[in-house]
Specification:
67% helix
Length: 182
């Protein structure tokens, strides 16, 4: 079946599909799943919408705004999309050297979630790369001076000071080490 993806008749189901990450469960919880199913959206079109959204979010990854990385992590909870970990790893390895302490910690925590989620879907080389990058980020946060950009306050994340930040780093390091030992 060939679908005209420029047709505005798909705007409503696309909005719902993207908003709920393609999750039938999420749409059902919001009471729109039955309406969504009435559109009879072809699976190929849903895949295209999700790819477009992931590409958009991957291009929006930033050290100043974490919405894109957070949304990609949410998509990963609902869908098996190994390209997410590849995109975040690529961004983090290029851009996070100049990031503040909280940015590095947040990206490391998202990578831990993704490593756990995708370990059986990505190559051992990609897994090792993500693991090493995550450990490097965590070590940087713990060993380098505390640096925070405006708007990235420790209290927003339930952390009081550098010691609290380092405790959270150690917890994350232990988690990823324990995960890889098992």
């Amino acid at each position: 079946m060939v679908v005209d993806v420029t047709d505005t008749e798909w705007d409503v189901p696309k909005k719902w599909f993207v908003k709920y990450y393609g999750s039938a469960i999420q749409m059902h919880r919001e009471g729109i799943y039955a309406d969504y199913k009435r559109w009879e959206v072809p699976q190929e079109l849903e895949e295209l919408w999700m790819k477009e959204r992931m590409d958009q979010l991957s291009s929006e990854l930033s050290i100043m705004n974490w919405n894109a990385v957070d949304e990609l992590a949410l998509i990963a909870k609902h869908r098996t999309e190994p390209t997410i970990i590849t995109a975040i790893t690529a961004f983090a390895s290029r851009q996070l050297k100049s990031a503040d302490s909280m940015v590095r910690l947040v990206y490391a925590e998202r990578l831990i979630e993704l490593i756990k989620r995708y370990e059986s879907f990505i190559s051992m080389d990609k897994l090792r790369e993500a693991y090493q990058l995550t450990m490097d980020l965590l070590v940087d946060v713990a060993t380098k001076p505390l640096v925070l950009d405006p708007g990235h306050e420790l209290q927003q994340y339930g952390i009081k000071d550098k010691r609290g930040l380092n405790l959270r780093v150690e917890k994350n390091k232990e988690e990823i080490i324990r995960y890889f030992r098992n």
